[in-house]
Amino acid sequence: MKKEKLELRKTIIKLHQKGKKQTEISDLLDVPQSTVSYWIIRFNKTGKLEDRPKSGCPSKLNKNEFKEFKEVLLDFPPARFGGKSFGWTTKMAIQYVKDHYNLQYSMRRMQELFHKFGLNLITPRTEHKMASHAARTVFRMDFKKNSKENIWIAPSLISTK
């Protein structure tokens, strides 16, 4: 649990024990009055301010397999197209898990794991996303009209902006 959440809850209880009203506490801490009421009632019933355990489906991979899979994704780009690849595709990772751990993951769950591991999605594009379509069209038209011969240009003269 985040430290700030716990501190807020402790502050609510301290102010309530000092005799402050719920509306005063909510105004002071800039939280809804219902939140103040909830934590006062919950503290009086249970004596605890921590979040309750959250339910959810357990992971298909155990902790060791999870750690091993993370290391594979981060340290070993897959071999494809006759050489080393820059990164993993979702389908390749699903196939890897199926082959090595005999488990089936959905596309979305694998994407969530990629995000959890800190991997970034890179979308290949044929042109820069900030490129101007109109400027490119004008350049092509002018170039076709004015060039009668092939031209050579030094790489240092080509703008990469």
What does this structure look like?
By secondary structure, the chain is mostly helical. The protein folds into 2 domains: 3-46; 57-139, no CATH class. The protein is built from 7 helices and 2 strands, in the order H-H-H-H-E-E-H-H-H. It has helices at 3-17, 22-29, 33-46, 63-75, 90-101, 107-117, 133-146, and strands at residues 79-80, 83-84. It has a two-stranded antiparallel sheet with strand order 1-2. Helix 1 runs antiparallel to helix 2. The radius of gyration is 29 Å and the shape is flat. The two termini are 45 Å apart. The mean pLDDT is 82.
What is this structure's SSE topology?
Elements: H1 3-17, H2 22-29, H3 33-46, H4 63-75, E1 79-80, E2 83-84, H5 90-101, H6 107-117, H7 133-146
Antiparallel strand pairs: 1-2
Helix pairs in contact: 1-2, 1-3, 2-3
Range of helix content: 40-55%
Query: What is the number of strand segments?
Result: 2
What pattern of helices and strands is seen along the backbone?
Answer: HHHHEEHHH
Radius of gyration: 29 Å
Low-confidence spans: pLDDT under 50, at least 5 residues? none
Give the strand order of the largest sheet, numbering strands 1, 2, ... along the chain: 1-2
Main sheet attributes: strand count, strand direction, barrel closure: 2 strands, antiparallel
Distance between the termini: 45 Å
Question: How many DSSP H or I helices?
Answer: 7
